[in-house]
Design brief:
Helices cover 59% and strands 4% of the residues. By secondary structure, it is mainly alpha-helical. It is globular, with a radius of gyration of 24 Å. The model has no long low-confidence stretch (mean pLDDT 91).
């Protein structure tokens, strides 16, 4: 017999292992793929983006892990934590470990679930591979960053904080929203809107920033994961094309999901914008530059003209996102600066050279609106009155970010929208979040809003010390002002000349 081609061998080892149920109906075996209204006529039309067997996949990933852990071990043994640009950089890692790594684990769980509940063998195997990828990412990120826990505060209990701490309800609510949706909406939310549409705004600039700031450990796991992310992006595009090509009635459903999950993902990436512009002592690329390159040029100018063939237009509210690139990172950081006394990271007024850099990057907004804020905050701190906001902020019902965003094109005016549902008022930070709420009111009225839970006594007690104890945060070590933190003192001592050390 002639030797089978690689494609035929792949078919035999994946698709041909599938079978048709004989003693139960297919509707009972796969009950979750019909209620969303998506119509699939031919599951075999799925084009596998991975083109891997389990054997080939595990060997490929094992080789990557071998190289990655060699780098991590070398970095740890060489006291790599002392080679960072500055201890302020660690705040970016804290936010990443607390807010991103748990998302990887949540994605692992749900893609594993889809590996059982999707009808076709092609998408089931793709979901299985991505599930294993996401678990690997959660593990390697935890291992790479864990070495800093030996020397610096705020890296403990990231999963506990993810479930409880106020600012981490932003990423947690994003994934809870996706996990509680149907399978096709989940794949649109995660595989397309997040992995394909927005992941480059997270991984590429941030990992480049890690490298530029001397963090070889984080850079290594980032680029080790990037080859996986490339496959995930391919899966995201295949999800969209597969669904759109199956039935024209899928088009309006898919458009609504793209509109919704673009805005949900964009609001989540506000934390990334802050990390990029404010938490990296050595700057690589501003949030504005990354937004223009990875979203405007690659997606809006490249992807969506191709999707127009299927009847898909660019996401709703994308013009607002384009306008906000001028000031999004500044507004998010100002929120975190005010409330870092109740957080597991520190903040400080940006040093003069960094504010000058921001003036160059954001010439139309920074000097006019944000430099005066930080100059006033610096003067207060010099007078012994470091500014922390003592009140609990109003939260957006959908994205759960404190209401600190402005009207489009007007950074001086706070935006507030609201809807009334069953006699109760719900508040939103933007037209995008209000539009999402009005489509699924029954879902979002159930949101677990940290401020509401604190007022109801569900977060350890009525006082700030009670809440911080429930969070697992030590306010004298983990958060607050960076320049007076134990981390800053240790960093200064470790880098002082030998004769000046205590």
């Amino acid at each position: 017999m002639a030797k089978a081609s690689m494609r035929e061998r792949y078919q035999l080892l994946t698709r041909d292992l599938d079978w048709k149920p004989s003693y139960v109906a297919e509707e009972d075996l796969y009950p979750h793929t019909r209620f969303e209204g998506i119509k699939i006529h031919d599951w075999d039309a799925w084009e596998d983006p991975f083109r891997l067997t389990v054997d080939a996949y595990t060997k490929y990933q094992a080789e990557k892990d071998k190289r990655l852990y060699a780098v991590l071990e070398s970095f740890a043994q060489g006291q790599g934590h002392l080679q960072l640009s500055d201890a302020r950089y660690l705040n970016a890692l804290r936010l990443f470990l607390q807010g991103v790594s748990p998302l990887e684990y949540a994605a692992h769980r749900h893609f594993g679930y889809l590996g059982r509940h999707l009808n076709g063998p092609g998408p089931r195997f793709a979901a299985l591979c991505q599930s294993i990828d996401e678990l690997r990412h959660a593990q390697t990120q935890t291992h790479a960053i864990s070495m800093y826990n030996k020397y610096y505060d705020g890296f403990h209990s990231p999963q506990k904080m993810f479930d409880r701490v106020w600012y981490l309800s932003v990423p947690k609510s994003f994934f809870d929203d996706g996990l509680s949706a149907g399978p096709f909406e989940f794949m649109t939310a995660i595989s397309f809107s997040f992995e394909y549409f927005l992941t480059n705004l997270l991984f590429v600039p941030f990992m480049s920033g890690a490298s530029f700031n001397g963090d070889l450990s984080t850079m290594s796991f980032g680029f080790s994961a990037q080859s996986d992310e490339s496959r995930h992006m391919t899966l995201g595009l295949e999800v969209i094309k597969f669904i759109l090509e199956q039935d024209e009635q899928n088009v309006p459903i898919m458009q609504d999901w793209i509109d919704k999950w673009f805005w949900r993902g964009y609001r989540l990436l506000g934390l990334v914008a802050c990390m990029q512009d404010y938490f990296l002592p050595k700057k690589v690329m501003s949030w504005k530059e990354a937004f223009e390159l990875y979203l405007e040029q690659q997606m809006l100018d490249g992807l969506f003209p191709d999707l127009e063939y299927y009847g898909i237009r660019p996401p709703r509210h994308v013009e607002q996102a384009i306008a906000e690139k001028e000031y999004l990172s500044h507004q998010v950081h100002w929120i975190l600066y005010q409330f870092s006394h109740a957080a597991s990271f520190t903040t400080t007024v940006p040093p003069g050279p960094e504010m000058d850099w921001m003036s160059e990057q954001y010439p139309d907004t920074f000097d006019r609106y944000y430099r005066p804020l930080y100059q006033k905050a610096a003067a207060m701190q010099t007078a012994g009155n470091r500014f922390f906001n003592p009140v609990l902020p109003q939260l957006c019902q959908v994205c759960q970010i404190p209401m600190g965003f402005s009207e489009v094109g007007d950074p001086a005016t706070i935006c507030q929208r609201h809807s009334v549902y069953r006699g109760e008022r719900y508040n939103f930070c933007s037209d995008g979040c209000k539009w999402i709420f009005d489509r699924e009111q029954e879902k979002y009225v159930q949101a677990w809003l940290p401020v509401h839970q604190i007022y109801q006594g569900n977060c350890g007690g009525p006082t700030l010390p009670d809440v911080l104890k429930w969070y697992g945060i030590d306010p004298t070590r983990d958060g607050g002002e960076y320049t007076t933190s134990p981390d800053a003192a240790r960093w200064a001592e470790w880098h002082a000349p030998l004769g000046a050390r205590s």
